[in-house]
Each structure stands twice: as structure tokens, then as C-alpha cells.
Design brief:
Order of helices and strands: EEEEEEEEH
Structural class: mainly beta
Shape: globular
Helix content: under 10%
Number of helices: 1
């Protein structure tokens, strides 16, 4: 899974949909995800967050989650968009 994009269902971000990130590392039951931002019809790009006390510096927005939060993994298209089958899954996925 490392290096793959993941469609996630993370309860603490329930109001944000779709939740997409790149899997950076994988352990027994957890994954480290670098969040990406975009929409179903736009290019997806890596998210950054401010460094506390960093005077405007930013770092990759990376978090760890249970691997069970992953709905599916995929690769972005050559133009950086999500593929059609993932768009369809986003439209039909329900908790």
C-alpha cells in the first residue's frame, strides 16, 4: 500500500468528503497518511500545515490512522485526478 492513494473514512473528519491521502508507511494495524486536497473534478495536491512557532513555515500534513479507515487504494490519473471508479465509489459510499 505504501505510495498508493487511499480513499479514507476517518470519523474525526466526517464533515470532510472525500478524504484522500497517500499512504507513506504501513505497520501492523496502522497507516501513516499524507493528506491531499482537491475535488472530484480537480487535480489533487499534497496538503501542508503550519509549523507551530515556525514563522510561516509549513510541513506535510501527515497523520496515523487504523488501517481499517481505508475504503480503497488507487493511483491518481496522469493529470493528478482521481479515477472514474473512485469517483463512483465516492458517490455511492455510505457509512
Amino acid at each position: 500500500m505504501v505510495g498508493m492513494m487511499a480513499l479514507m473514512d476517518v470519523p474525526q473528519y466526517a464533515g470532510e468528503w472525500p478524504q484522500i491521502g497517500m499512504v507513506r508507511s504501513e505497520e501492523e494495524t496502522t497507516v501513516e497518511v499524507h493528506w491531499y486536497g482537491g475535488s472530484k473534478s480537480s487535480t489533487w495536491k499534497p496538503c501542508k500545515k503550519a509549523v507551530l512557532g515556525g514563522r510561516g513555515r509549513k510541513e506535510d500534513w501527515v497523520e496515523k490512522f487504523p488501517a481499517t479507515c481505508i475504503i480503497t487504494t488507487f493511483k491518481l490519473t496522469s493529470s493528478g485526478n482521481i479515477p472514474k471508479h473512485v469517483k463512483e465509489l465516492i458517490d455511492t459510499y455510505h457509512d
